[in-house]
Write a structure and sequence with these properties.
The structure holds seven protein chains of seven kinds. Chain B is mainly alpha-helical and 495 residues long. Chain B has 20 helices and two strands. Chain E is mostly helical. Chain E has five helices and no strands. Chain E has helices at 3-28, 32-60, 65-95, 108-117, 119-132. The chains are: A mainly alpha (629), B mainly alpha (495), C mainly alpha (238), D mainly alpha (118), E mainly alpha (133), F mainly alpha (177), G mainly alpha (84). The structure holds sodium ion (2 copies). Chain C: Keywords: Cell membrane, Membrane, Transmembrane, Transmembrane helix.
């Protein structure tokens, strides 16, 4: 049993290294896919063990550098790991088509191991180590393609890593523990005894917020994400955005598990909510709104989905921040749905870029005829993302919405609503601008996406539909996760059942969602629409360009169409807010740091030995004053 | 074999240095080969001493002249000294090989002598158990360092050496005043004896003496703002010597500082001094990292990086806890390996491509792939990337620092480490993603050393357990003063 | 203006530092007997080392390691100066010859000074002398030769070899101690051979002190002369 | 805060040290700085010697009627011998360095000897 | 206290007086050449007195004759070296271009140096002088 | 001025050095004597080539006698010189009339010239400024009228030499000549 | 016995005067002459101290000092004369 955790963890890494060393086309890809499949298969195999040993999960321990390292496969860990490996498998298939070098395989598989490791770790040493491995590998993926973006990602990651390290150090200093169980116990005791001061607790909280926030791409630490997601192999981005960024979300859950009581004792309640959770919820809400607005304004499909990803992870944070069981349930469900629909989106994007070489809206049009399967996949993704039943995305969003309403957080709920509206706005544009309308002449020869990529898409498309139609499959398992979490919070072995109902029907205290009914209605509706389309009056074909100018005269530089500057009026309306870019703020900060560095270097090490002697004299003087006074 | 034979650690480099004039007529190759041979033998002796100390678990006390301390001077080769003397010897051995390629400036016989004496000085500083003898070995080390800094005889080299001399001179003068005060207050110079008597010292004399001794050593240990000489000296010295400076010369100063701090822990004003060292060490890290950020000369950049790491070690050593010292020693070992590798590779690039400016490193991944790879491993390790050795010691230092209540220092150090990550990344990027060039045949011996060091970095990074166990013993050696005193065979003197 | 400010700051600083040092020194009052190990030396120096001069006994015997280091320091200086001032071709810098008064005076004084230098280092265990002042005295003799004659140069190879051999001899004497007595720098002449025990206070006593001082004297003499030689030469074109 | 009462020897020694330090801090000429360093060293040596002095006692050479009870502390004297030699060595090396600097820079003004900086 | 000691002490007194005189000359004389004239001689004789006097005094006080011998050795050394250093110093002063005191009446050395510096010119100059006579 | 044999020169140096040793140690302890002899032998071997040219001939009884006799003569001159100094220094008007005069010597050997120069330096009002071959240039604190009034160079040299070098030369000629 | 005070006083005055000349100069040879005189006086002083402490061994120190001082003065003189 124990070895299986190790095998599951390190197979991708070893496969990546082998692929890198062997580097023969075909073998490389085979090894990679096998390496991606093994953890998934093992996780599937372990499912029953995990579920049956809810309160005594499989554990794996070893000692490194005097630290005891623990891996655990609780229901929570299994859930995240399973989602990650599902996306990992899809990524591997996608990469067969999109990536043609061993470098990518090495680091993609390395980050796969890192992500799995983060989810399975049950102590801060292995957690941090694998966190760093994951960061490093993903950084290498960005570095290969864009230096500037990689630097941004690198710096923010390093800041996050060091913030986490400091937080871990503080916890270790106060509790002497690095194992999650030990920390949990110690923090629980500490909450009662009050050993750790208020400021220290808040500092730890803030540090973790920074560390996890960076990885999750939470506002205002999101600035690395658009570049890193878009300047990458898009198959890998499916994993990056779909699985890797979940590590940040997972970190927030960890925060609850490790120190909820302590944080509550220290920070207290705020209008009936946990203050610390409220902060998380708001970070999530702001992230949703900001990222969704920015996504709407993008002209590049990669950028669009990058911002969209940020916004969707914001939903998860928001859900976790609600701090109720319902919130957790919604957040956890959204982890899955976001992974599958955003993963799918990125694979679709990968296919589009692979086949057309273009990334900007203005260069697309009418691809639905050329890449029908890809189009179908993207339709599923669009529906899911936009939160249209009966896709997985709807189920999770619905749960989150319910949670926010239940928790009496109308503003947060408003953010969800606004986010959904904006999401609708940008996916509609994507749907139309890319797939419909006039096809630019240079896209006439576009072929359907290659098979491996299509397989990858299918791997992600199927759960979108299955878990959309039968969300109960997920919620049933999520109940087990919540039970485990409850056990972790309070050592109580009680089966939690937050979302009830059947496989096709979700029942919460405030509402019911019957996916089956909705599906049936949708099928009927689509059938009617199809009949109308086929037998209805033929519409006159008009050019899609120059049809929409928002009341402005048409000029060369004020030329709006669905393919170009479609949402420019919105941008103009938001002009005041867009001036404040954290991206630019950080760049300026970096500039100031560099200027400071030069000033310090030139000023202190000024080359004059007499000045240097003065430094010595000043230290002596300080010593003297210290002694004299 | 009799433990007294550990005195060969001192005797061998000395007699070998004195022998050089007699073989200088045989030419450059002979002298360089001789240098390699002697450092190899020294490594052997150090290895024997190391295994002796670690297998018996007891320090070797070398009593010069057969006099028991405090009447005679003793060497105290405990767990720390045994470990570090070995490191000194190994690094010297590697750098002797490197010198064969790297040092062409005449007079080579003088270079060999100074090289051996630099090794001797650091060995003595680490091994000695007498505070004035420490001063002597410190001067041997620093005067050799002055000479070697200026060895290239360029204006810059002389300038760097001059700065080193002036600052080192002030430092050693005040150190000696401190020694005089401590001697005046205790009547003895033996460290164990001083530790015994520290509590009975006159309070003001102890306070001033302690402060001055630490001040003097802090100059050698490159603590801000007493380290202004260091970047110049590192930059100007011949490449192998720079590696030695960073790998063990500064470590000897750090160790001496730590040793004296704990020896005098019963002295008046002790905790104040500790706080001051912590403050200076933190500033050292911050200032050095920022100074390295926009540095165009890679050798100088790594020099600043070295200073910052040294600041981190000083921070750990001054925490006043067992955990801190063990972490500090751990970092000393790791840093020695990493900086030896970095200066070796950077120096090799310098002599092969005509300089150590960042421009020289463009396209290095294509021109000298092995050098570039090992340099990359060293850089990643220096940044503290997990699975490389420095990560573990850095984590240990941070844990110990926060545990000792210096969270803000740790936060500052971490903040500065972000800067470090950036400039190393720039270097790595330049090597692999900027520029192009002809493939150059890389030197075999240097390649082997570089690979060995890089492998060591990775092996320790992946499996740090054994080293950690080892350095904990070494840390114990510094921290547990009662134990130290009990091992020094002090004879009763006085009425 | 800046200079004035700098001076004032310097003065204020050194006054404060001085005050602090004085405070510390007040803790070890002048003229008081602060000896601990010192008493031991004074009481046992004669029987344990055969030296009358306690300082010498400490320098060479009790704290021999320091002296070995001290010899090394001077060796480093000589080597370092040699390394730094090394040029392909060098000549003496002096342009005018000394008058006959100086040259003849130096010629006559030279043997006397060498003799006296030897006297100093050989009597180290009996008088305040020793290898270092003795060597310095001998080096002064060579310095005078340099001063008087513009083309004088020491025999370089001989001196360098002598320097090396002397240094090696010192270490060898120490190693013989290690072999015979089990300790590095062990005074085997006095403690194992008991040579000169009846001569306490006379020349042939003091164990290995006169031997080591002779070595040091030769070493210091050649080293300082070498330093002088290096300093008084400049590079000349080929 | 009262003025510490120290002997004139200590005072002289400290004064030399401080004069040396002053010189290093204000003199622009490298040679003067090196001389200042030497003055400092001299002061330190004097201080060392003074530490070992015992009122009314003689040099620790146990001849001419001086016994162990009549001698001053021999240790500082032994130390000073070493310290002096170290000082000489440092000075010799410093002078060589200064010679190279003068040769390469054509000046001994330390404000102009700063090619290495930053 | 015996005669020898008394003699010695007297010599010491005389010696120190000459020390004083030597330093006084150093102050009162107008230029470096004349300062050397007065101070060298007095300092040497003063040393002679102090050293030999001390030796005698010691012997008179019951210390060994070695005192006298050693003191005399030092005295002889000074007697030999002081004029040499005085000579070296005055030559250095002259060669480094320090002019004679304005009241000086003759400078044969300058003529000698100039004649040596340009042998031809010296030749013609001397013949010219000869011609005048 | 003929050079003596090496043996003679060596022996002479050895003897002088041993005498110096005796003076330095001021002891007749056999240990000192033994070592002194060995040391003298070694140092003499190194230094005799520059120490002497005439070797044992220096020890000719006549020379030794003159040398011994020269001591009181010279000491007397020196005491006179100092009284002269005392007069000039203490006199309120500082009676000086300095100048550099030119003398010649009959001495041929270097040791002779050295002794003469030193003797001049230590005696009344004169310091040897430079020696060039046979020419002595003397700084004189009170140049007498007779020298100043000399008509020719030869006369100047003659009168100056009469005053300055001659008194010593009669001894030194024998001792070093 | 007149007492050591008188000699010391005379020597002290002499040293101070020489020191004055050393400080004032005005030329470098002036200072050198002052140094020369001071070293000579110091040698005598050392011998006097030897007698005061009744330690003959100090006479050796005086001679070493005299030799080193002579070497130093000659070196400076030759330096003034036109370089070493
Ligand atoms: Na004189
Ligand atoms: Na003199």
């Amino acid at each position: 049993m124990m070895n299986e955790i190790a095998v599951m963890l390190f197979t991708p890494l070893i496969a990546g290294i082998l692929a890198w060393i062997i580097n023969v086309k075909g073998i490389r890809e085979t090894i990679g896919v096998l390496g991606a499949l093994v953890p998934f298969a093992l996780l599937v195999k372990e499912y029953s063990t995990v579920v049956n040993n809810l309160y005594n999960p499989p554990t794996y321990q070893l000692t490194v550098s005097g630290f005891n390292i623990t891996f655990k496969l609780g229901t929570l860990n299994w859930y995240f790991a399973a989602v990650a490996s599902l996306v990992g498998v899809a990524m591997a298939f996608g990469m067969i088509s999109t990536s043609r070098n061993s470098y990518d395989w090495l680091f993609a598989m390395m980050s796969y191991t890192g992500v799995l490791g983060v989810f399975l770790s049950w102590d801060f040493v292995s957690f941090f180590l694998l966190w760093e491995l994951m960061t490093f590998a993903s950084f290498m993926m960005v570095l290969k393609r864009n230096r500037h973006e990689s630097l941004k990602y690198f710096v923010l990651s390093v800041i996050g890593a060091y913030a986490m390290l400091l937080a871990i150090a503080l916890i270790y200093a106060k509790t002497g523990a690095l194992n999650f169980d030990d920390i949990r116990h110690a923090m629980y005791l500490d909450a009662i005894m009050g050993g750790m001061s208020k400021s220290e607790t808040i500092l730890i909280f803030a540090l973790f917020l920074t560390a996890f926030g960076v990885k999750a791409g939470a506002w205002p630490l999101h600035v690395w994400a658009p570049g890193a997601y878009s300047e990458n192999d898009q198959s890998y981005t499916a994993f990056f955005s779909g699985a890797l960024s979940k590590a940040g979300a997972y970190g927030f859950l960890l925060l609850y598990i490790l120190m909820m009581v302590k944080l509550y004792y220290v920070m207290g309640p705020f209008h009936g909510h946990l203050t610390f959770a409220y902060i998380i919820a708001w970070i999530g809400a702001i992230t949703v709104v900001v990222a969704s607005f920015l996504a709407v304004l993008q002209e590049d499909i990669r950028k669009l989905f990058a911002y969209s990803s940020i916004g969707q992870v914001g939903y998860i944070l928001l859900a976790f921040g609600v701090g109720t069981w319902m919130g957790f349930a919604g957040g956890l469900f959204h982890v899955l749905s976001h992974a599958v629909f955003k993963g799918l989106f990125w694979l679709v994007t990968a296919a589009i870029i692979l086949q057309t070489g273009k990334t900007r809206f203005e260069d697309f049009g009418g691809l639905a005829e050329k890449m029908p399967i890809t189009f179908a996949m993207s339709l599923i993704a669009v529906l899911s993302l936009a939160g249209i039943p009966p896709m997985a995305g709807f189920a999770s969003k619905w749960l989150i919405y319910e949670a926010a309403i239940q928790a009496h957080m109308p503003l947060v709920a408003g953010a969800i609503f606004l986010g959904s509206a904006l999401a609708f706005a940008y996916v509609v544009r994507f749907l139309y601008a890319v797939w419909f309308g006039q096809r630019p002449s240079d896209l006439e020869d576009v072929q359907e996406a290659p098979l491996p990529l299509l397989i990858g898409m299918a791997i992600l498309a199927i759960p979108n539909v299955v878990f959309g139609v039968a969300p109960g499959l997920v919620t049933k398992y999520i109940n087990k996760v919540l039970s485990y979490m409850l056990f972790l919070f309070g050592e109580r072995k009680v089966d939690v059942s937050i979302v009830t109902g059947s496989y096709y029907k979700l029942v919460t205290p405030t509402g019911t969602y019957n996916a089956l009914t909705v599906t049936l209605m949708l099928v009927v509706g689509l059938a009617i629409a199809g009949l109308i389309y086929i037998y209805g009056a033929k519409a006159r074909r008009i050019p899609v360009t120059n049809t929409y100018q928002s009341g402005n005269p048409v000029t060369e530089d004020y030329n709006l169409s669905i393919r170009r500057n479609f949402y420019r009026p919105l941008a103009e309306a938001l002009e005041f807010w867009l001036k404040y870019s954290f991206d630019r703020f950080y760049e300026r900060l970096a500039g100031i740091a560099e200027d400071f560095a030069d000033w310090l270097r030139e000023g202190f090490y000024n080359g004059n030995v007499q000045a240097y002697s003065w430094y010595l004299a000043i230290v002596l003087l300080i010593l003297a004053l210290w002694g004299v006074l | 074999m009799n433990g007294q034979y550990a005195s060969l650690l001192i005797a061998l480099p000395l007699i070998s240095a004195f022998f050089v004039p007699l073989i200088k007529g045989l030419g450059r190759k002979a002298v360089m080969g001789y240098l390699v041979l002697i450092t190899a033998i020294q490594t052997g002796i150090a290895g024997w001493v190391f295994s002796e100390v670690y297998s018996t678990g007891k320090p070797i006390i070398v009593m010069a002249g057969g006099w028991k301390p405090p009447v005679g001077i003793n060497l105290y080769i405990g767990h720390f000294a045994a470990l570090f003397v070995l490191i000194v010897a190994i690094v010297s051995f590697f750098m002797a090989i490197f010198s064969y390629k790297a040092v062409t400036v005449e007079p080579i016989d003088k270079y060999a002598m100074l090289f051996l004496l630099l090794m001797l000085g650091a060995t003595g500083m680490i091994a000695t158990g007498d505070i004035f003898n420490l001063f002597v070995f410190m001067e041997i080390t620093s005067i050799t360092a002055y000479a070697l800094t200026a060895y290239n005889k360029t204006g810059e080299a002389a300038e760097a050496s001059m700065k080193y001399i002036v600052l080192g001179g002030i430092g050693s003068s005040f150190f000696l005043i401190g020694v005089a005060l401590i001697y005046g207050a205790t009547g003895t110079l033996n460290m164990g004896h001083i530790a015994q008597l520290a509590g009975t010292m006159n309070a003001t004399a102890a306070q001033v003496g302690l402060a001055l001794v630490i001040f003097g050593l802090a100059v050698e240990a490159e603590l801000f703002p007493l380290n202004a000489w260091a970047p110049d000296a590192y930059q100007a010295a011949p490449h192998p010597i720079t590696a030695m400076f960073s790998a063990f010369v500064v470590k000897a100063g750090l160790y001496a500082m730590a040793r004296l701090i704990y020896i005098l822990q019963n002295a008046n004003g002790w905790s104040d001094i500790l706080k001051l060292v912590i403050a200076l060490a933190t500033l050292t890290v911050v200032v050095a990292e920022f100074s390295a950020l926009r540095q165009r000369d890679v050798k100088r950049m790594i020099a600043y990086s070295s200073i910052s790491q040294v600041g981190m070690i000083a921070f750990a050593l001054a925490l006043g806890t067992q955990a801190g010292i063990s972490a500090g020693v751990f970092h000393m070992v790791n840093h020695a390996i990493v900086k030896a590798l970095l200066f070796l590779t950077v120096g090799y690039v310098g002599i092969t491509l005509g300089g150590t400016k960042i421009e020289n490193f463009a396209g290095l991944g294509k021109r000298m792939p092995l050098t570039a790879l090992t340099l990359t491993i060293g850089s990643l390790a220096a940044v503290g990337i997990p699975l490389f050795n420095i990560f573990w010691s850095k984590v240990r230092i941070l844990l110990a620092g926060v545990e000792a209540g210096y969270s803000w220092s740790v936060a500052l150090i971490l903040g500065a480490s972000v800067v470090e990550a950036v400039y190393y990344l720039r270097l790595i990027h330049t090597m692999w993603f900027v520029g192009n060039g002809e493939r150059i045949r890389e030197n075999f011996a240097i390649g082997v050393i570089a690979i060995f060091l890089a492998a060591l970095i990775v092996v320790i990074g992946i499996y740090p357990n054994d080293l950690w166990t080892l350095v904990q013993k070494a840390g114990q050696d510094i921290f547990n003063v009662a134990n130290y005193i009990s091992h020094v065979p002090l004879m009763g003197v006085g009425s | 203006m800046v200079s004035l400010l700098k001076r004032s700051l310097a003065i204020i600083s050194i006054l404060i530092i001085g005050y602090w040092l004085a405070q510390g020194l007040a803790g070890v009052p002048f003229g008081q007997d602060k000896m601990l190990v010192g008493h031991y030396y004074l009481q046992h120096v004669k029987e344990q080392t055969g030296a009358v001069n306690a300082v010498t006994a400490i320098v060479v015997n009790y704290r021999g390691f320091d002296t070995l280091g001290e010899v090394t320091v001077l060796f480093i200086a000589s080597t370092g100066v040699g390394a730094l001032l090394w040029r392909k071709k060098r000549e003496r810098t002096a342009k005018t010859e000394g008058s006959v008064v100086l040259t003849t005076g130096v010629e006559l004084l030279f043997p006397f000074i060498v003799m006296f230098g030897s006297y100093i280092f050989i009597h180290g265990h009996l008088t305040p002398g020793g290898g270092f002042p003795g060597g310095a005295t001998i080096a002064t003799a060579f310095l005078l030769l340099y001063m008087a004659f513009i083309s004088y140069e020491i025999p370089h190879r001989l001196f360098e070899n002598l320097e090396g051999i002397a240094g090696m001899s010192y270490v060898l004497v120490g190693l013989i101690g290690l072999a015979i007595g089990g300790y590095f720098l062990f005074d085997w002449i006095w403690q194992t051979w008991h040579w000169g025990t009846s001569n306490l206070g006379r020349l042939f006593s003091g164990g290995f002190i006169p031997v080591i001082y002779t070595i040091i004297g030769i070493k210091v003499g050649t080293e300082l002369s070498g330093i002088v030689d290096n300093m008084l030469k400049e590079e000349v074109g080929e | 805060m009262s003025l510490p009462s120290i002997s004139v020897y200590y005072f002289g020694a400290i004064s030399l040290v401080l004069i040396g330090l002053y010189g290093v801090l204000v003199k622009k000429n490298l040679m003067k700085i090196l001389i200042s360093l030497s003055i400092m060293e001299t002061g330190v040596n004097l201080l060392l010697i003074s530490i070992g002095y015992v009122s009314g006692k003689s040099a620790p050479i146990l001849s001419e009627g001086i016994g162990p009870a009549q001698a001053v502390d021999p240790i500082p004297q032994a130390l000073v011998l070493t310290a002096i030699v170290i000082g000489v060595a440092t000075t010799a090396l410093a002078l060589s360095t200064a010679m190279i600097i003068y040769e390469k820079y054509g000046t001994l003004n330390i404000e102009e000897i700063r090619r290495l900086r930053g | 206290m015996n005669a020898l000691a008394a003699l010695g002490e007297a010599l010491v007194l005389i010696g120190t007086f000459f020390y004083f005189l030597s330093a006084l000359g150093l102050i009162r004389m107008p230029d470096v050449y004349n300062r050397m004239q007065t101070s060298t001689k007095s300092a040497t004789l003063g040393s002679l007195g102090v050293l030999v006097g001390t030796g005698l005094w010691a012997v008179g006080d019951g210390l060994s004759w070695a005192w006298f011998v050693k003191a005399t050795v030092i005295a002889v050394f000074l007697l030999l070296t002081n004029p040499i250093s005085a000579h070296a110093l005055i030559r250095a002063a002259y060669k480094s271009g320090i002019p004679l005191w304005q009241g000086s009446v003759v400078d044969k050395y300058r003529e000698h140096i100039e004649a040596k510096a340009s042998p031809g010119a010296a030749e013609s100059e001397s013949t010219e002088e000869g011609g005048e006579e | 001025m003929e050079e003596a044999s090496n043996v003679s020169r060596y022996l002479y140096t050895l003897i002088v050095l041993f005498l110096i040793w005796l003076a330095l140690t001021a002891s007749l302890d056999p240990q000192e004597l033994t070592f002194g002899l060995i040391l003298s032998a070694i140092v003499a071997a190194i230094t005799y080539p520059i120490f002497t040219t005439r070797g044992l001939a220096n020890l000719h009884p006549k020379r030794v006698t003159y040398a011994i006799a020269y001591v009181p003569y010279f000491l007397w001159a020196m005491i006179m010189a100092n009284l002269d100094v005392a007069y000039r220094v203490l006199h309120p008007k500082k009676p000086i009339r300095p100048g550099v005069v030119h003398c010649k010597t009959v001495l041929k050997t270097n040791p002779g010239k050295l002794s003469l120069a030193n003797s001049i330096t230590l005696t009344p009002g004169t310091i040897t400024l430079d020696v060039d071959g046979d020419d002595y240039f003397i700084h004189w604190i009170w140049v007498p009228d007779e020298v100043l009034s000399a008509k020719s160079e030869e006369e100047h040299v003659e009168r100056a030499s009469e005053n300055i070098t001659r008194p010593f030369e009669k001894f030194l000629k024998v001792i070093f000549g | 016995m007149i007492g050591i005070g008188v000699y010391l006083a005379l020597i002290a005055i002499a040293t101070l005067l020489s020191m004055y000349r050393f400080m004032v100069g005005p030329t470098t040879p002036d200072r050198l002459v002052a140094v020369d005189i001071m070293t000579t006086i110091t040698t005598g002083l050392m011998v006097l101290f030897a007698l005061y402490y009744r330690r003959m061994i100090f006479l050796d120190v005086a001679l070493v000092y005299a030799i080193l001082a002579f070497g130093g003065v000659i070196a400076f003189a030759r330096y003034m004369e036109g370089g070493l």
